[in-house]
Amino acid sequence: MYDTNMDNLGQKIKYFRKSKNISTEELGRIIGKSKTTIVRYENNEILPDILTAIEICNTLNIDLNDLCDTSLHNIDKSENINPFNSDLLYLYYISKGGIIISSIEITKTQNTNYVLMKNGLTSKGFKQEYTGVLESNYNTAFICLTNAISNPGLDKFQIEIDLHSQVNDKYYGIFLGISDNTHKPTARKCI
Predict the structure, then answer these.
(1) Domain assignment present for 72
(2) How far is it, in rounded angstroms, from Cα 16 to Cα 4?
(3) Is the distance from CB of 134 to CB of 120 less than 8 angstroms?
(4) Is the separation of the CB atoms in 31 and 59 below 8 Å?
(5) Does pLDDT of 153 surpass 50?
(6) pTM of the predicted model, to two decimals?
(7) What's the CATH code of the domain at 29?
(8) Domain assignment of residue 105, given as a range
């Protein structure tokens, strides 16, 4: 069921637009709206109609559910906090190429923790960028991510972290997704 409170719809549009490095002018041009209209959407001065919302989602390569709060999840939204006491996390896991390091930036809105993950950090940048959401309760943090740059197929994965596993400011969890080269399901332990 969808929440009809659209107070943070504009923040979500802005977040996903910026994460895709698309300007307000470019988004407006693609969906046939002015820059001013896009800014008014992002400032919650006006709401897009359903067809415009779908055009925005198609342009930003996101699902309509990413813009709307739903009650499809069993996590109480009032408990959905960032449990890590930091807006920047680092994730480590082992792959064929060795240890992979990723950064996870968390941005909190009213009821949602948005995540920007830069996977495969090197001194020259990163290999992939993903966007998604962090949901948590007192036991578990759950991060669901989608490829932010291009989505060839279903380039999505999940990270589940046991919040009771903390040792010396480190948490342990599991990283679930599809392997880059074999396109087979993979699960990796992560810190």
Answers:
(1) no
(2) 20
(3) no
(4) yes
(5) yes
(6) 0.57
(7) 1.10.260.40
(8) 77-190
